[in-house]
DNA sequence: AAGGATTTGTACGTATGTATG
DNA sequence: ACATACATACGTACAAATCCT
């Protein structure tokens, strides 16, 4: 079998070869075409398959180990640390959404930062406020079973919900915080879903390696009178999460 | 203003600085935080903003010009050749979904392949058939304004919908084809959304370059009696499409 | 129990690409 | 266009852990 490698990698693309190899390995894992599902082929085999040096494969594997996707054991092989993707429900009635409750043991939401700022055009439009009106901006990271699954920024009308950040820090839940302000129920008005490469902030917050993908949701929640109360942009680690649309 | 750059670029990440800058410019364009929407700030300003050398910004811009995202004019500036992302609606009532109709001039769906095959476990479960029952598998690519936006595979009960493929080839529409079989309306029962790197087939069908991202939807449609009639997996080019969830 | 085969980990040297000034 | 510094990619060799006969 003198079958030379496939030469599918791009050499002067601004993306290092080892990163491209890492992406291919991630892909091979997610669609099950690489290895037997639990163990990766040896480095030599991979390097021939991808037409690169073994060191390049090693750099790729090392990044994926760092990320928790793989586990390497000297003399034995490289193994896939697979966990099922968490299914994050997107429902109309946010209140009745159990979120990830049933699928994880430990779920935590950390409050990264909160500031009062004047509403930018986009935020003002979403919350139906005057541009420049004071809004609370709340940045959070949520993790499940010790893995960072999403990071997000939300904006609230600072006049209607004073000291919302303190309440949130205590309850660790937007729903519970709204309840303190007399908003017992609210609905998801609109949701946009897109996907892109993780940016520097995502890499930091979600502990990803470059080239990783995030699912981006941009959503507006209304109270039951139809007034917008929350505008949010959330980035989910695409390797860990899928969105379940419940229509 | 001695405000030094933000140092947000990562230096040892396997992604060349100029490519990271290119990605940030693309992001800045898509959310409108860069320039005035049609013209980019001068290279010097950008290099200060990103904390990199002007040469690096120039490399980034040159790549984006190559890609058709920007247009540089000597002495005048760098301009944005942007098209908005297509917004693909995900609604309960598929029938009333206008799809991309309002957003594009020319929308075409090409039938790539169709075969009758025994239902695999996953397909059988989704369509509530016996495993091995004959199902029609239909592979399509759809393009809008000359750009390939999605490719997908759908499965239908071959017994209930004989010669569905021929009808589809004629009508180029699943909804219209169902109507020929007396199914005038149907609903989207469940939709899973995830994201991953494009695989070899995606690159081929959607004319993407390696490293590109696809949004993956896995959906089941029911007729009005609640019987599943279509199981589909669709890959959208994430650079061109966002999904608008209408709950 | 011993030894060879397999597989991951480490070290060096060289050439090319990338980023800055 | 040039010079410098660092990152990336390849090649080779060998060490360390594990597996199999």
UniProtKB/TrEMBL annotation, chains A, B:
Pfam families tied to this protein: GntR, UTRA
Any one GO BP annotation for this protein: negative regulation of DNA-templated transcription
SUPFAM superfamilies for the chain: Chorismate lyase-like, Winged helix' DNA-binding domain
Designated name of the protein: GntR family phosphonate transport system transcriptional regulator
InterPro entries the UniProt entry points to: Bact_HTH_transcr_reg (IPR050679), Chorismate_lyase_/UTRA_dom_sf (IPR028978), CP_lyase_PhnF (IPR012702), Tscrpt_reg_HTH_GntR (IPR000524), UTRA (IPR011663), WH-like_DNA-bd_sf (IPR036388), WH_DNA-bd_sf (IPR036390)
UniProt keywords, alphabetically: DNA-binding, Transcription, Transcription regulation
Ranges for domain HTH gntR-type: 15-83
PROSITE patterns (UniProt xref): HTH_GNTR (PS50949)
One MF term in the entry's GO annotations: DNA-binding transcription factor activity
Organism: Pseudaminobacter salicylatoxidans
The UniProt record lists the keyword Lipid biosynthesis: no
Record has DNA-binding as a keyword: yes
């Amino acid at each position: 079998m003198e079958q030379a490698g496939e030469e599918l990698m791009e050499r002067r693309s601004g993306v290092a070869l080892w990163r491209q190899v890492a992406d291919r390995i991630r892909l091979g894992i997610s669609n099950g075409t690489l290895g037997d599902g639990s163990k990766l082929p040896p480095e030599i085999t991979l390097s021939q398959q991808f037409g690169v040096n073994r060191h390049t494969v090693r750099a790729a594997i090392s990044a994926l180990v760092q990320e928790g996707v793989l586990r390497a054991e000297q003399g034995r092989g490289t193994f896939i640390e697979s966990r099922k993707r968490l299914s994050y429900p997107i429902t109309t009635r946010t209140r009745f959404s159990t979120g990830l409750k049933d699928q994880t043991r430990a779920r935590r939401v950390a409050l990264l930062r909160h500031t009062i700022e004047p509403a930018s055009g986009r935020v003002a439009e979403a919350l139906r406020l005057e541009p420049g009106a004071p809004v609370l901006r709340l940045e959070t990271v949520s993790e499940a079973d010790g893995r960072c699954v999403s990071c997000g920024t939300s904006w609230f009308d600072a006049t209607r919900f004073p000291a919302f950040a303190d309440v949130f820090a205590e309850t660790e839940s937007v729903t519970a915080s709204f309840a303190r302000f007399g908003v017992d129920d609210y609905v998801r008005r609109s949701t946009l879903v897109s996907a892109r490469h993780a940016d520097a902030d995502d890499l930091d917050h979600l502990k990803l390696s470059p080239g990783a993908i995030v699912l981006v949701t941009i959503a507006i929640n209304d109270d039951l009178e139809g007034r917008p109360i929350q505008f949010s942009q959330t980035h989910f680690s695409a390797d860990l999460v899928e969105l379940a649309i419940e229509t």
